[in-house]
Every structure is written in C-alpha cells, then in structure tokens.
Amino acid sequence: ESTAGTVRIVMWVSAGGSALFVALRCYVRAAKQKAFGIDDVIAVVATLCLIAYAIVCTMASYKGLGRHILYVEQTNPQHLIDVALLANIGESLAIMACTLGKTSFAVTLMRIVVQPWIHHLLWFIIITMNLVNVLAAIFVFVQCENPRHLWNPAIPSKCWPTHVFTDFSLFVGAYSGAQDFVLALLPWVFIWRLQMTTREKLAIAIAMSLGVFAGATAIVKTTYLVNLSAKSDFTYALPPLLWWAAAEDGLTLVASSIPVLRPLLMMLVGSSASK
C-alpha cells in the first residue's frame, strides 16, 4: 500500500499549474502592460520555492514517503532518516512558498486600491504573515539543540515539548487560512469604484476571490496536522499534509495571477470573435 504516486501527481500539478499561470502573468505585465513590478518578482520566487518543494517531496517519495513505516524499516532503515530530513526541508519550502504567494497578492492589491485604510490593512497582513511564517520555517530546525535529531532520533538532543511546535503550527495554519479569506473578500470592497462596466467588475471580483479555495485548503491541511501529531506511522501519515500544503500554495499563486491575465484573455476573446 503506497500513496507515493499521489504525492508526485499532486506536487507537480500544483507546481506546474502555478508555473504556467505565473509565467503568463509575467508575460502580460512585462510585454503587454510594461508594468512588471515587485509583486511579480515575489510571485516568481514563490513559484521557485513551490517547485523546489515538489522536487524534495518527489525525492522523498522514492525513499519511502507514502509507504508504511514498517515496510521502509524492513527495506532500508536509512531511508527513514532520508524521508524525515527531506520532509523537514520541504516543510520550510512550503511555508515560504505560501507566505510569498500571499504577499504577492497583497502587493498586487496595493497597486490597485486607493483607500488608505485598505493599504494599512494590507501592510498589517503582509508584516504579520511574514513574521509568523518565517518563525515557523525557523522553528522547524531550532526546536532541538541538535537539529540532526529531527531526522535521526538516534542522535541525542534536548528538544522542545512536542506540543509547542505543533500548537504554533496549528496557529500558523489557522492564521494563514484566515488571511486567504480576507484577501479574497477585499476586492469586493473596492472593485466597484473602478471605471469599468458592471460585468467587468463582477468578473474581476470573482477572479480575485478565488483565494477562498486556498483558504479552504488551508483548513483541510490544518486538520491533517492535528491528526498527524497522534500518529507514529509518519511515512504513511505525512503525505496528505504535504499535498494539501502544495495545493494551498498552488491555488494562492493561481488566484493571484488570474486577475493580471485579463488583457491576455481579452486579446484571445477578440481574436476568436474576429474569425
């Protein structure tokens, strides 16, 4: 019994889909609008983190991730250490991809809105989100005096109580999901003031609200984190958490890129209509 194949599929669908949308986004911003900005740079870096995450998880899937721990122990005990190490590296990459993806979307909104209170809210989201997520990425490796203990329990080390990192991770997951919903709903506040037809406003508002799916994914991911803390068969229990993290990261990047693709979509629609 193995979920390794599912791990690879979800990882590369998330990373590949994100890369496609971000590449199209960069094309529109650079070639069509001549307005390539810092939010686009952040989106590219987030995509690279997600691709690196997919690579790391793919490597782990060939080492035993997705199989029961008893099978991995009997096949090659060293692979348990490899999977644990790769999982820790992947966790930090997923956190950074998630943080940068949301930061990119927040900066994109700041380029559109004019209301000061929304700018202040977006700055609050950006600062607090980056603070808690950077801490989470760091805590992955500093929760033990000797970080090698995290992937090789045979190495003695004094560590934090298990619940400390788990509780903080739950907080980060919940906060991340809440920010997805806030960022998804904000466009409905200011989009009606833009000089567009009602149909265009509605289409853009809906497109910019696709982050609600990332928020829903974050909630599902957090429930798996709760369940994982009570399981010892980590090589088999871990994959759902990893692929839901990839899905959240991918959906965040796609949702933040779709509104930017409006000129490209208009061009394609116009081209089809003229035939």
UniProtKB/TrEMBL annotation:
Keywords: Membrane, Transmembrane, Transmembrane helix
Keyword Membrane: yes
Compartments (UniProt record): Membrane
Membrane topology, as annotated: Multi-pass membrane protein
Entry GO CC: membrane
Residues passing through the membrane, by range: 6-28, 40-62, 93-114, 121-142, 168-190, 202-221
Keyword Transmembrane: yes
A Pfam family hit: Fung_rhodopsin
Domain Rhodopsin: 24-265
Superkingdom in the source lineage: Eukaryota
Family in the record: Belongs to the SAT4 family.
Name of this chain's protein: Rhodopsin domain-containing protein
